């Protein structure tokens, strides 16, 4: 469960498609060292290049976030800092050995009888070796080591939660960017349809098959469609900029084409809510981190209790001087200490830690309630979005057939403009609803994995 840093090439093939050859500015980014935090599971290799395409897959975007996101890097460094604390605590069980060389050059000036000045010059070096080893104590070293280990484990799980949250943000932003791009296409298609209806209306007016006023309505719909398309383009631009910031691409660099994937969904009912809640309470990294923090404080409480009462230690010391003369000194020390009076300072410190433990236990209890609530909300969200997606796909098929029939009928002079516009509005609504439902469902699926502690893409 240790965190590691791996150098990985940039790759991933998704849905039969791969990332193509990138321009130099992207190739330099993608070739950088991968920074990843690995806990219970490993991080898959992500590398894909195809010289005929320039596509950024979701897997590639996730890898970029792990490589370049500052929040992830910071969490990783916090884990490494915790590792150094364990080394410090472990060192107390081993002897310390020091070597020292000291050279002195001493010159003394003094006045002799007759006011003569004399000097006394002494020079020489001294080489010594010293060692000390605490052979036995009252458990203080073990308590300190236990505290360090639990604190390190808490940092690991906190870092894993940071990684998971960041990866979920990438997934969400990736799908939102795709959603915005798809809605932009729908809006542009709506412009083309409105243009077609306007052209057909003008043709019918010239043929004296429609009233002149119908051109005004068709033109108004065409202009409104152009405004909607511009708004959709702006939304798409903002979504792309947000994704670039999270995965670490420069703001001035263009975002590669996003890999679309399947345009339809096949909702799969999740497991029972109670099963997911039990799993989430046991697997959520943030909850595990809080439990480790409490256990670390319990070790600190034991250490404070020991320091407030009877304590003993057995230590050995050895000193060896090898220059200018050979001398050695060996000492074995057994020490017992009992604090007679400290105005209650040590006991107060132990009680303070105890209160902190109780506070953290209460915080953990509340956090578990929030997790239950999060899982229940995410569970129902998946079910609802699955139903939405199925209904939206059915509605889209019906709207497409209805619009095709209406346009063909208008060409033949059987439908008036209002009927065609109504069919067009239904189709645009159905297309937008299907896109919204598809990406809402995909995001809700990943969110359910996030809140239950299950592996998410890129982890």
Low-confidence stretches: 1-53
Order of helices and strands: EEEHEEHHEEHHEHHEEHH
Q: What's the number of extended β-strand segments? A: 10
What structural class should be given to the helix and strand makeup?
alpha/beta
CATH superfamily: Outer membrane efflux proteins (OEP)
CATH class: Mainly Alpha
Number of helices: 9
Q: What count of structural domains?
A: 1
How is the biggest beta sheet arranged?
4 strands, antiparallel
Strand content: 15-25%
Strand order, largest beta sheet: 6-7-9-10
Mean model confidence by pLDDT:
84
Question: Based on CA inertia axes, which overall geometry fits?
Answer: elongated
The CATH architecture classification is Up-down Bundle
Radius of gyration in whole Å, from Cα?
Answer: 36 Å
Percent helix among the residues?
55-70%
CATH topology: Outer membrane efflux proteins (OEP)
Distance between the termini: 13 Å
Characterize the structure shown.
With 459 residues, the protein is an alpha/beta fold. It has one domain (10-452): Outer membrane efflux proteins (OEP), CATH 1.20.1600. The chain is built from nine helices and ten strands. The protein has helices spanning 24-30, 58-68, 70-91, 140-206, 213-247, 273-283, 285-307, 345-411, 417-452, and strands spanning 10-11, 13-14, 17-18, 46-47, 55-56, 96-112, 116-137, 257-258, 311-323, 327-337. The strands form four sheets. The chain has a four-stranded antiparallel β-sheet with strand order 6-7-9-10, with no helix packed on it. Helix 2 (58-68) crosses helix 4, helix 6 packs across helix 8 (345-411) and helix 7 packs antiparallel against helix 8. Mean pLDDT is 84; it is low at 1-53.
């Amino acid at each position: 469960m240790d965190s590691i840093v791996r150098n990985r090439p940039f790759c991933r093939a998704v849905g039969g498609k791969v990332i193509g050859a990138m321009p130099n500015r992207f190739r330099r980014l993608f070739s950088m060292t991968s920074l990843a935090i690995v806990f219970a599971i490993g991080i898959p290799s992500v590398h894909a290049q195809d010289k005929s395409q320039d596509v950024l897959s979701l897997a590639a975007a996730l890898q970029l976030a792990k490589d370049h996101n500052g929040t992830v890097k910071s969490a990783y460094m916090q884990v490494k800092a915790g590792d150094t604390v364990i080394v410090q605590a472990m060192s107390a069980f081993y002897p310390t050995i020091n070597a020292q060389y000291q050279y002195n050059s001493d010159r003394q000036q003094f006045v002799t009888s007759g006011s003569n000045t004399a000097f006394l010059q002494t020079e020489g070096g001294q080489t010594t070796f010293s060692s000390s080893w605490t052979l036995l104590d009252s458990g203080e070293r073990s308590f300190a080591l236990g505290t360090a280990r639990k604190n390190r484990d808490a940092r690991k799980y906190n870092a894993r939660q940071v990684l998971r949250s960041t990866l979920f943000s990438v997934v969400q932003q990736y799908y939102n960017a795709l959603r915005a791009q798809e809605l932009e296409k729908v809006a542009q298609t709506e412009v083309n349809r409105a243009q077609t209806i306007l052209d057909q209306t003008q043709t019918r007016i010239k043929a004296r098959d429609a009233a002149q006023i119908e051109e005004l309505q068709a033109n108004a719909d065409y202009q409104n469609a152009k405004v909607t398309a511009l708004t959709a383009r702006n939304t798409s631009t903002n979504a792309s900029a947000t994704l670039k910031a999270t995965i670490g691409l420069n703001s001035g660099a263009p975002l590669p084409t996003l890999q679309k994937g399947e345009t339809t969904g096949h909702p799969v009912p999740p497991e029972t809510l109670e099963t997911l809640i039990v799993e989430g309470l046991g697997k959520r990294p943030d909850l595990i981190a809080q439990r480790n923090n409490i256990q670390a404080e319990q070790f600190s409480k034991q250490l404070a209790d020991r320091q407030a009462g009877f304590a003993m230690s057995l230590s050995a010391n050895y000193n060896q001087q090898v220059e200018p003369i050979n001398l050695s000194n060996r000492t074995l020390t057994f020490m017992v200490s009992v604090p007679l009076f400290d105005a209650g300072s040590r006991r107060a410190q132990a009680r303070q830690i105890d209160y902190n433990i109780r506070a953290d236990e209460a915080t953990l209890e509340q956090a578990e309630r929030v997790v239950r609530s999060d899982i229940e909300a995410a569970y129902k969200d998946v079910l609802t979005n699955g139903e939405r997606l199925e209904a939206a796909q059915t509605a889209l098929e019906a709207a497409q057939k209805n619009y095709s029939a209406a346009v063909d009928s208008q060409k033949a002079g059987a439908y008036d403009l209002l009927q065609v516009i109504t069919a067009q509005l239904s189709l645009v609504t159905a297309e937008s609803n299907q896109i919204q439902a598809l990406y809402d469902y995909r995001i809700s699926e990943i969110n359910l994995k996030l809140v239950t502690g299950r592996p998410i893409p890129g982890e």
